[in-house]
Amino acid sequence: MGKLERPLLAVAPWLLMISLLLRTWVVNSGFGNTSIDLRVYWTLAPHVLDGDLYDVVSPYSPPDFPLPFTYPPFGALVFLPMTWLFWGAAQWGFRVLSVLCLYWLVRTAVRAVAGEGWRTEPRLWRRRALLWTAVLLWMMPVFHTIEFGQINLVLAAVVLASLMARDDRVAGAGIGLASGVKLVPAISGLYFLATRRWAAAAWSLAVFAASALLGALVDLGQAGRYWFGLFGDAGRVGPVATAHNQSLRGALSRSLGHDVGLSWPWVLVAVPAVVVALLALRAAVRAGDALIGVVTVQFLGLLLSPISWDHHWVWVAPLLIWLAHRRIASWVRVTLLALWCPVMFLDVIAFQLDRQPTIWTISRPGWLSALGWAYPALALLTLLLVALPVLWADSRVVRPARSAA
Question: What is the DSSP string of 268-316?
Fold first, then answer.
């Protein structure tokens, strides 16, 4: 335990309380008080029962950005109970749920890096979980998730807990349900395959299929329209090249001045990204490091997805915990923390948004296009450094879990 950490851990519960109060004040007094994305779920989910879920947009949409429901029909069914609450209760209830899920995400990650330390020094590691939660409330993807009323923290907590679960039925069901609500978590099946958890993979497919079937039972035409029409329409989700989109496709489109789609520029970047991610995943599995293995898979999903809004990158939170507590090469730790922390705790996305004419404008000045690579470029660098044990046939970068105390 470092000299700086000791006094902070002593007051960790108080720091978390102060952090929560300050964050609540910031959200409640600014733009985030609108919870604009939560309004989409709250106003449009009932349309799943009317058969016109994909024909309507939120009445609270900005003038230049109509907001439709973009998830599968099952996602609307999951949100349906929330619509029975009046707006204030739904908004604050979802905020509380998001903060609880942040804590659960942190706690699961801290337990993973603690190893035996979680059992031998439980008070130390639980205090660390509280301290990390207090700090990560100020990480921009976390803040923007709470600000917009997005579901990222809920899904991330479910996905990480599921992938860490020992019971294959629980693990697979969790991933299947998360993927049924929003498709991006389906990339988690890659982790099951890498760790040869065939039963978990089968359970995830079965539960996902059941979620799709349930949506079809509610309205077959509506489900068919989503899966065979809207499923691949990235433009319906939002402007591909806005600074909010931190996927490879978004970054490339801003740099080249047009939506690259799945054309050869995207392929030239995506294929090496997949190769490096698979090498990183192999290194994590060989080292018995479940946490960085999970983060590796989620980063790959965020990079390849046509739209990965900046608030989707809540997966950097467990990465920072891994970097701080795992026994890894010090130069890897220092390099990645020195690069990720300014990007995560300073609002580089807002800086870019203030300098783009509209969210629909694709081309950017060169320096602004370069800054627009912040998230995907650092993700690629992270995957490369994790993959180094495979590239070097060495195990000095990633080592098996041990207590960091």
Answer: HHHHHHHHHHHHHHHHHHHTT-HHHHHHHHHHHHHHHSS--BGGGGGGH
Answer for the pair 72, 211: CB distance below 8 angstroms, yes or no. Answer: yes
Burial of residue 30 (number of CB atoms within 10 Å: 0-12, 13-18, 19+)? exposed
Q: Compute CA distances 334 → 71, 137, 170, 209, 276, whole Å.
A: 38, 22, 36, 43, 21
Residue 245's identity, in one-letter code, is N
Eight-class DSSP state of 248 = H
Check residue 392 and give its pLDDT. 61
The predicted structure's pLDDT at residue 404 = 40
Least confident of 26-35, 148-157, 186-195, 277-286: 26-35
How many Å apart are CA 177 and CA 106, to the nearest integer? 21
Q: What is the mean pLDDT of the chain?
A: 90
Instruction: Decide: helix, strand or coil at residue 332.
Output: helix
Asked if 284 and 386 count as a contact pair (C-beta separation under 8 A), the reply is yes
Per-residue pLDDT averaged across 365-382, rounded?
A: 89
What CA–CA distance (Å, rounded) separates 185 from 179?
Answer: 5
- Average pLDDT (153-176) is 96
DSSP secondary structure letters along 102-141: HHHHHHHHHHHHHTTHHHHSHHHHHHHHHHHHHHHTTSHH
| Closest-CA residue to 382 (of 309, 333, 310, 324) | 333
Do residues 146 and 25 make contact, with C-beta atoms less than 8 angstroms apart? no
DSSP string, 326-343: S-B-HHHHHHHHHHHHHH
Contact 81, 290 (CB under 8 A): no
The model's pTM is 0.93
68: β partners: 57
